[in-house]
Write a structure and sequence with these properties.
It is a single chain. The protein contains 5 helices and 14 strands. With 292 residues, it is of the alpha+beta class. The chain has 3 domains: 114 residues, no CATH class; 91 residues, no CATH class; 75 residues, no CATH class.
């Protein structure tokens, strides 16, 4: 028991150290890849198994919950270690051309990743939040700056933009007389509009609300599988999970995908369910005993 307490204290110190950001991106997680941390986690798993072995006799419901909870923790550790050893993770761009399927791509760090199947993407769609203008009040003196007043969304219906105490502006006055073809410039709305009192309306580039694409996977037998790829809705295929991360915001020529191959993922999920069921059993038996 004393050894377990010391190991828990050491692991807590590791977790605290890993919570503080350092200079380079993700450099703080290096501490979790050190041999000392791995040895501590392995020792903890062995101690948990030893505890389960000592409590192996008897088939009481509460003891089953105890075993499930502790063995689930070991299964999670094994799955996480397996993913750490042989798991793969990378980011790369896929051209938005269905007929440009490929089985290898250049990754963001300058390397390459190769799959056992061909991959392509098409049918990209993006939806934006409603566009809006920021209102800046004209300075009182020549040396003063414009003061921010408020933001006003462009209405989806009607023909005026209501500025509250600052009046209204006809939407036709805010529209581009000729659609812009310059990258980064909204083709429909003016970037700035000067009001009669000297105040300025500044267009705010709207952020994407939702975007998606169709992912096409072709195996060695030329059989194609099509799946919709959306933010927070990954696609699983061939042992890989693909996450939609970003896209070409200028020309919409490609999407950026994060690909992960984690053989220990299913073990981690199984371990979590074992712990959930085990804790539920322990709590249920305890509550039942209290009622008696």
């Amino acid at each position: 028991m004393t050894t377990s307490i010391y190991i828990f204290i050491a692991l807590i110190l590791f977790f605290i150290a890993g919570a503080f950001p350092v200079g380079e991106a993700e450099a703080q997680i290096i501490i979790f890849k050190t041999p000392v941390f791995i040895l501590l986690m392995a020792t903890l798993a062995v101690l948990i198994l030893q505890c389960c072995w000592q409590q192996r006799r008897g088939f009481k419901l509460r003891k089953i919950g105890f075993q499930l909870t502790h063995l689930g923790a070991v299964v999670i550790l094994v799955g996480a270690f397996l993913g750490f050893i042989v798991g793969k993770r990378t980011n790369f761009a896929i051209p938005l051309t269905k007929h440009a399927a490929a089985d290898n791509f250049q990754t963001g760090d300058g390397g390459t990743v190769k799959f056992d199947f061909k991959l392509a993407a098409s049918g990209f769609k993006v939806e934006f939040f409603a566009k809006q203008y920021n209102l800046y009040k004209a300075p009182a003196t020549k040396d003063a700056d414009y003061d921010y007043v408020d933001k006003f969304r462009i209405p989806s219906s009607g023909d005026v933009l209501d500025l509250g105490n600052y009046g209204t502006v006809k939407l036709e006055d805010l529209r581009q007389s000729m659609p812009s073809t310059v990258q980064g410039i909204d083709p429909d709305w003016k970037q700035q509009h000067l009001l009669p009192d000297g105040s300025i309306l500044q267009l705010v580039n709207s952020a994407p609300r939702h975007y998606e694409a169709m992912l096409h996977m072709t195996d060695k037998n030329s059989a194609t599988t099509d799946k919709k790829l959306m933010v927070n809705h990954p696609v699983s295929y061939g042992g890989w999970r693909f996450y939609l991360m970003s896209y070409d915001q200028q020309m919409k020529r490609y999407i950026v995908v994060s690909a992960r191959n984690d053989p220990g993922r299913n073990l981690v999920i199984a371990g979590l369910w074992m712990m959930i069921v085990g804790v539920f059993v322990i709590c249920f038996v305890k509550a039942e005993g209290t009622r008696k």
